[in-house]
Write a structure and sequence with these properties.
Largest sheet: 7 strands, mixed
CATH architecture of the largest domain: Alpha-Beta Complex
Distance between the termini: 57 Å
Low-confidence stretches: none
Number of domains: 2
Mean pLDDT: 91
Strand order of the largest sheet: 9-8-7-10-15-12-18
Structural class: alpha/beta
Radius of gyration: 22 Å
Number of helices: 5
């Protein structure tokens, strides 16, 4: 926005609130080739992880003579001519294109091919219909995989070019990486995904590429969500406890437990989640932190990395014995010894279907030769 320190990301029509606040911006709305002007106001999200810049919503009242604006721009004067398309013109309450959509953000310098394809195929097995990736940069091998899933219609890749305009950090706190905005613009990406799919999907999961929300009593999200809706009734957001499966530990299963299947993807770069079936104990200090959510997007106005910002008190905690999150990553408690880790073989319940699906995807992406399996 010329004359301000504001960068516009996207534009969506908000059907649920009508606010009149202190004027801060000039909104130019295009309706049937006629330009209309309204006075907008910004509201900065409170969660910005101590960085000097944060995500904000600029609310532009829709003039009575322009109820369905097609394009909009926001400026500090009336001379700005760079418009963006207004989306979400029609509010919907049913007949959604997708049942489950997952928002993955943000992808930069990404090379972890094997864990990505395993995660995407696991999501399919769980009943996910659509995955959205906000991508800044990745390896050529990763790009092949993204192209494969995009051609199938399972994946949407949003080109995330925020780093061209803002000094983004590669860390989640200023001490972990210099910059003006949190973690490659993760929070604006999540909020854009929330609005992008608000009227396209019944449920929306906001998580990372190394995270999987696994039911414990049923096998899919399609079976899980009716159980959660019945138990929590009025709630439209579900929080899942984070369980860290450190990639530094590839331990054998205890006693008579089934062993992980043989690795057929030895030459593919990345983490094999089936080799890491021991998680760190959940401790009191982190029991209710770093969780992720599945929501009805129409109930949410703004979100952060871990949970909803607005409205409050809309989310319910899910019992870990009903469903929980499996986070395969670097250890969070590196001081633990092998015998202090806890075995959890739930992922193996999916391995019979997961192995051939991953192999097929890698072959079709030209990342695995036809005869390079089960060596």
């Amino acid at each position: 926005v010329n004359g301000t320190k504001t960068l516009l990301i996207s534009a969506y029509l908000e059907h649920r609130v009508h606010s009149k606040e202190t004027v801060a911006y000039c909104c130019l709305l295009c309706c049937q080739e006629t330009l209309h002007v309204s006075e907008g106001v910004s509201s900065v999200h409170p969660d910005h992880f101590q960085f000097p810049y944060g995500t904000a919503d600029i609310m532009c009242p829709v003039p009575s003579a322009c109820q369905s604006p097609s394009y909009i721009t926001v400026t500090s004067d009336k001379l700005e001519q760079r418009f963006m398309e207004v989306k979400n013109l029609e509010a919907k309450t049913d007949s959604f294109r997708y049942n489950f959509t997952v928002c993955l953000s943000t992808m930069f310098d990404f090379t972890n091919v094997l864990q990505l394809v395993q995660s995407l195929e696991m999501m399919r097995l769980l009943g996910v219909n659509r995955v959205v990736v906000y991508k800044t940069s990745c390896s050529p091998e990763t790009q092949r995989l993204l192209d494969h899933y995009t051609q199938q219609g399972f994946l949407e890749v949003v080109s995330w070019t925020l780093s061209r305009h803002v000094n983004v950090s590669r860390g989640w706190l200023p001490l972990h990486g210099p910059g003006d905005l949190h973690y490659m613009g993760q929070i604006p990406a999540l909020n854009d995904c929330l609005y992008r799919y608000m009227y396209q999907t019944r449920y929306l999961a906001l998580q990372d590429m190394d995270e999987l929300i696994l039911p414990q009593t049923v096998s899919s999200w399609s079976a899980l969500l009716p159980l959660l809706e019945k138990e929590h009734r009025a709630k439209q957001c579900y929080m899942f406890q984070n369980n860290v499966f450190p990639i530094t530990a590839a331990l054998p299963p205890p006693g008579p437990a089934a062993a992980p299947p043989a690795d057929p993807w030895g030459k593919v770069s990345g983490i094999n989640i089936l080799k890491h079936l021991h998680h760190e104990p959940v401790i009191k200090e982190t029991e209710f932190s770093n969780f992720k959510i599945i929501v009805s997007p129409r109930a949410i106005f703004s979100t952060s990395v871990h949970g909803v910002l607005s409205p409050q008190n809309v989310c319910a905690w899910v019992d870990r014995n009903v469903a929980r999150m499996y986070h395969t990553r670097d250890p969070r408690q590196p001081e633990l010894t092998a015998d202090q880790l806890i075995y959890d073989g739930r992922l193996l319940n999916y391995s019979a279907a997961l192995l051939p699906a991953v192999t097929t995807a890698l072959r079709q992406s030209r990342l695995l030769p036809e005869d390079d399996t089960h060596q």
